[in-house]
Amino acid sequence: MDAQSLTWIFIIAFAIVVLLGPLAIPLLHRFKFGQAIRAEGPVRHQQKSGTPTMGGILFIISAFITAWRFSDSLTTWLLLLVMVGFGLIGLIDDGLKILRKKNLGLTALQKIIAQVLVVVIFYLALYFTGWHFSLSIPGLGGGIDIGMWYLLFLVVFMVGSANAVNLTDGLDGLATGTTAIAFAVYAAIAWWESQWNVSVFSMAMVGALVGFFVYNRHPAKVFMGDTGSLALGGSLAAVAVLTHAELWLIIVGGVFVVETLSVIIQVISFQTTGKRVFKMSPLHHHFELVGWSEWRVVLTFWGAGLLLGLATLFLFIR
């Protein structure tokens, strides 16, 4: 697999989303699949109410077609299984929010149970293909064989990743750009490790996300919804697993980690002291409320994600 092939994969995935957009977005409008904006969010976000959601279907379809076309392998199908599985959970969640006309879909417990089920299916698929369940520690040679404990790790890792990306998806283009950067890093890692199938899938995701940004940039014409954010977080974690670079995701996805920590810190602080550390969580809303424009927040978080991605590549291949 050479750079030219990966470039074509990027272009095709990008083109599919760009071509689907003008067809899908009006349909989402027609069926009134509009986003309900939570009342406690920043006031200026209320103007986004009614913007079509479930747009994640666009890049899911694109990545599926492109990855399948260029890499019809067991590895690819495992990645597609995770992407579609998490995406379906998000689709149900988004659908319930639309039907109820409020920002309440599946309960947290229902979403967690469904996500765990997808992870268990992924684990069993790996098990029956003879996958070696070892955990690589950055900076140390080889990996640590943790046997059946890997299932517990996998549940925490993949469910955590899916929900971290979901929390980050709060501003136009924010999750789209940060996950595109993360997938680009893993495309490079997979290519470096000669894992062509994983590299193909990752590059297909990059192209599809860049295409989606055409419609998701501020002011967004469509949101990815939980359909997209859960699919992205789950499949990003699966890519990290298949490249044996799981713990590197903590650095590559540092933006997602910080966003999640901001929510945890806010909740703990408020419940124990009655005070809030941030004006609002996740962290991107805090910066909005201190006066930053939405575009400035997005660019800053993208920049942080890019620096973390480059740092990961430097440390991984040196």
The SSE order reads: HHHHEEHHHHHHHH
- Gyration radius over CA: 19 Å
Whole-number count of domains = 1
Shape: globular
Distance between the termini: 21 Å
Summing up helix and strand content along with how strands pair, one would put the structural category as mainly alpha
Q: Helix proportion of residues, in percent?
A: over 70%
- Poorly predicted runs are none
Number of strands: 2
**Percent of residues in beta strands?**
under 5%
Layout of SSEs?
Blueprint lengths: L2 H28 L25 H15 L3 H27 L7 H21 L5 E3 L6 E3 L3 H20 L5 H19 L3 H21 L8 H18 L6 H4 L1 H20 L9 H7 L4 H24 L1
Antiparallel strand pairs: 1-2
Helix pairs in contact: 1-2, 1-7, 2-3, 2-7, 2-8, 3-4, 3-8, 4-5, 5-8, 5-10, 6-7, 6-8, 6-12
Question: Overview of this structure, please?
Answer:
- A two-stranded antiparallel sheet has the order 1-2.
- It has one domain.
- It has twelve helices and two strands.
- With 318 residues, the protein is mostly helical.
- The protein has helices at residues 3-30, 56-70, 74-100, 108-128, 149-168, 174-192, 196-216, 225-242, 249-252, 254-273, 283-289, 294-317; strands spanning 134-136, 143-145.
- The longest helix has 28 residues, at 3-30.
- It starts with a helix and ends with a helix.
Task: Give a brief rundown of this model.
The chain is 70% helix and 2% strand.
Keyword list:
2 strands, 2% strand, globular, 318 residues, mainly alpha
